[in-house]
Design brief:
This protein is about 35% helix and about 15% strand. A hairpin with a 4-residue loop joins strand 15 and strand 16. Helix 8 packs antiparallel against helix 9 and helix 14 packs parallel to helix 18. The structure holds 1-deoxynojirimycin (NOJ). The site of 1-deoxynojirimycin has 9 residues, from loops.
Length: about 575
């Protein structure tokens, strides 16, 4: 695997700093806490961390509204604490990738404070200003996309909340200032960036209005109440139509090329992964982003063999079209999505499905990204009361539908608890002690702790249980490390019409590995005689008790929901 880059071999682990580990006992995660948990991560077997924003922020969007790009949020520690974290990560061979928010800053960033102060200050043109709202564009978080500023008697544009004004990327000074910030962290030794919302950086220059006959709150409500297939199709169309002029516009490729050139100034194979599923943003495979996420794999309520095969064939075909062959990148969970355990569960076999889906991400071709807490099976936690909601898009929605649409507060809370991203951002469960060992006993964590930490969903209990999900992840990560085909092997789907199981080979020059994921509750008798001609199966991993293979006939018995991984030996 020597010709592969580190980010092709690595398994990434996303840390949401506010919720990971509270080292100073103030109810909020911090660098001291993260640094103390690096041995845990090394032991888990991950190779790289994607750190969600750690910069100063008024936290209207939980850190994605940055008020200083070259500093550390005081609640997370100091720059020295960051440097210690980075050094200690590198000492353990764990790379660190930061979050880079290009589209917008916080409205409290000094750039915006200056920009909004008058029409002729030096930064007057750093954001997107207009005299009157030119269209009906919506902010995807809180209604109108144009917000009035009396000092300028003008409006500014924001794709996200009004506290997140869009930068004017047509202004070369903006680029210069942002690239300086990028260089600051690269100079400290970080290994790359996850790029936030790159599709939103540019807008349609003609400012074409959207054609959806409702505003954002109405569309959300319509989506919740859509019953018939026709209504459901319509709501999907409306979501696309509402934002199509504010998303994926010309200019992003050039910007990504510039950023790639900045990254390339540094040694050590620094990397970029885009929060977008559009493979076009990988350019020719060598001049824009190194990776984009395979979100289409995750964009379903049920992971099925048919869905996986379809997804892989489309993604791989597209990656292969790049002039320099592209590398895939798979994930099922992050801080914006319902947790894997909840999202892809069927309420009957959630534990089994969580294990299958973990195995899927860790065996498919491409770099896997895990989200903190998935390794212990953390679930969504639906907040019972609006006063607990921290995700401002959630509280905005609650208040809008209650006050403007007359929705009953109880129903509004139910909807809000489901849509807000707080549900998948609650603090990590380290033990079965009070506050799940995240914060000391008498401290109130910034978001409520999911009470199910007491029922074994915590690191301490699972470390001591050989059959736990945590030990399952550790085991799989070890297997992946030891099997080169699982990292560099080609993907060869088998039994392509099977609906109950997903079988495939990963085949490299050195090794062939068979993977069978049984997504059904049935014991299956499968025939791999073709693949097994002249070969023997050497089991690398099985989650079932009785996987057997009949060498003479190539028949393999797979237990319900079994994950079976075996090397084909000649
Ligand atoms: C995508 C981030 O993942 C999300 O959490 C954030 O709210 C938006 N971009 C805006 O920065």
């Amino acid at each position: 695997m020597t010709s592969l880059k580190w980010w092709q071999i690595a398994v990434f682990y996303q840390i949401y700093p506010r919720s990971f580990a509270d080292g100073n006992g103030d109810g909020i995660g911090d660098f001291k806490g993260i640094t103390e948990k690096l041995d845990y991560l090394a032991n888990l077997g991950i190779d790289a961390i994607w750190l969600s924003p750690h910069f100063p922020s008024p936290n209207w969007d939980c850190g994605y509204d940055i008020s200083d790009y070259v500093n550390v949020a005081p609640e997370y520690g100091t720059l020295e604490d960051f440097k210690t974290f980075l050094k200690e990560s590198h000492k353990r061979n764990i790379r660190v990738v930061l979050d880079l928010v290009l589209n917008h800053t916080s409205d409290e960033h000094a750039w915006f404070v200056e920009s909004k102060s008058s029409r002729d200050n030096p930064k007057a043109d750093w954001y997107v200003w207009v005299d009157t709202p030119p269209n009906n564009w919506q902010s995807c978080f809180d209604g109108d996309a144009w917000t009035y500023v009396p000092e300028r008697n003008q409006y500014y544009y924001h794709y996200f909340m009004k506290q997140q004004p869009d930068l004017n990327w047509h202004n070369p000074e903006v680029k210069q200032a942002m690239w300086d910030a990028v260089r600051f962290w690269l100079g400290l030794g970080v290994d790359g960036y996850r790029l936030d919302a790159i599709g939103t950086v540019f807008e349609d220059p003609n400012l074409t209005p959207h054609t959806v006959p409702m505003n954002l709150a109405e569309l959300r409500r319509f989506s919740e109440t859509a019953q018939t297939d026709e209504e459901k199709k319509l709501k999907d169309q409306y979501w696309l139509d509402m934002f199509k002029n504010q998303y994926g516009q010309a200019g992003v490729h050039e910007l990504m090329k510039e950023l790639r050139a900045v990254i390339n100034e540094y040694d050590g194979d620094r990397m970029l992964v885009g929060e977008d599923d559009n493979i076009d943003y990988m350019g020719n495979g060598n001049d824009e982003l190194h990776l984009v996420f395979n979100f289409p794999l995750a964009n379903t309520n049920r992971i099925t063999p048919v869905h996986i095969r379809q997804n892989q064939s489309e993604r791989i075909a597209r990656l292969n079209q790049l002039a320099v062959e592209g590398w895939a990148c798979n994930t099922l969970g992050n801080h914006d999505r319902s947790r894997i355990y909840t999202n892809y569960g069927d309420k009957l076999h959630d534990a089994e499905l969580a294990r299958l889906n973990a195995a899927l991400v860790l065996t498919l071709p491409g770099t896997p990204f895990l989200y903190n807490g998935e390794e212990i099976g953390m679930t969504d936690y639906f907040l019972p009361h609006i006063s607990q909601v921290k995700d401002t898009m959630g509280s905005w929605y609650y208040h809008t539908i209650v006050t403007e649409m007359g929705v009953d507060p109880e129903e509004a809370m139910f909807r809000t608890a489901e849509m807000t991203r707080d549900k998948n951002r609650t603090p990590m469960h380290w033990s079965n002690k009070s506050n799940a060992g995240f914060s000391p006993e008498n401290v109130e964590p910034w978001l409520p702790i999911n009470p199910n930490y007491k029922a074994g969903i915590n690191v301490h209990d699972q470390e001591h249980n050989p059959d736990s999900l945590l030990n399952y992840y550790k085991h799989l990560l070890k297997i992946r490390k030891a099997a080169p085909a699982l990292v560099e092997g080609d993907y060869i789907p088998l039994h392509e019409t099977a609906e109950e199981y997903f079988a495939f080979l990963r085949k490299s020059e050195k090794q062939s590995v068979l993977i069978v994921l049984n997504y059904s509750e049935k014991r299956l008798e499968l025939n791999f005689s073709k693949e097994l001609t002249d070969k023997k199966l050497h089991t690398l991993f099985t989650s079932g008790v009785r996987s057997q293979v009949d060498r003479a006939t190539g028949k393999l018995t797979i237990a319900p929901f079994e994950v079976f991984i075996a090397e084909l030996k000649g």
